[in-house]
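Structure ticket #2291
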Amino acid sequence: ETRLEGLSAGAASAANVVMRCRCGTGVSRVRASLWTQGGVEAGEASDGTVDAETAEARCAVRVLRPTLWAAGAAYLYRLRLEALDADGAPIDSYEQRLGLRTVEASDDGLLLNGEPVTMRGFGRHEDFPLVGRAEVGAVLVRDHACLRWVGANSYRTAHYPYSEVDLDLADEHGLLVVSESPCVGLSFADAPAIVQQRQAQATRALAELLARDCCRTCVVAWSVCNEPGGPQSVPTAEAKRQQTEALLELVALARAEGTRLVTFANIPEHCDEANRACDFLSLNEYVGWYYDVGKPLAEIGRQLEAKFVALHADFRKPIMVSECGADTLPGCHMMAPGLWSEEFQAGLLEVYTELERKLPFVFGVHVWNLADFRTPQMHLRAAGLNHKGVFTRLREPKLAAHMLRRAWRP
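Resolution: structure written out below.
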């Protein structure tokens, strides 16, 4: 684990990079050093003695005048750890790229290096024709090129941890990541034994995510689950109590990591008391598509504004729209924007970008989705695809992608 100490906003004269390492048999000390991209040692190397009981060592490197990692302006140092035996001889070594930055919550959102950041981006899926759900290096590179082209600065790993190669690219390009646990639609309507087993599985999955991504510079927030459920999953007052308790346990587990913000994505009408324990609300909102179909876009904008104002007054938390959008068939055009048309998708998403600019406590919009993706067949899924992407499944831009590019790029 790594964490940054002594770095205050606007005063980046020095910082301490503090590491906690778990060591194997025969390791007596751990030596840490930090190197610039030019191969110059950035701070004085530090040794940490391995505790005999915990098999852990703690060491720190003090860096003078650090170059900070920022959104769209990534700077990665090279951290080197050496395992030494009792005589000081090296046993093993490990290197990792590392950016130096701070993340804090504010009344209106997220502070990166002490400065407010507006989160503009997408939910994504690891999906592509022929290969389906799989990691393909060329597709990852294309996805990140699409993110940069449209002016995005962030994404959420909906709804599972993405590959480490994906996070490598985010570290390199200065993209902010909300890292999400693979806990989707948690239900509390089942038998108690099943609910307990599911909670144990959710806890284990989140712990594994925290352990894997705790040193990732790009990860600025944890999302402990997605859409934990509505009336069908909490049919009784007791089930609702169990849900709140279970979500609070997951939030507390992520909070204990100690260096990032904590949230979970929820449908606005299903917000739980556990949302009050988070740093911000993540709202999945689909007005105009799954409900209120055919309502004029101007009226949708007024409706959303009233809803967000009410939620902010109730929860006293900043808001990020974690999902929004409408299915759109590439090449479908209508003079009067209607369902499935590129004009409707672009107009609907423009409503959200305008609200983000208008409401100070709405600090970000993540569109669902970056690109179209395969789904199970159903009537709402034309050709077996979810067409909410602003890029096609082959990663070509729809009209909405051009609208977002104009809105997000200065």
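Closing remark: The helical segments are 137-150, 164-173, 192-213, 237-255, 297-315, 342-358, 399-408.
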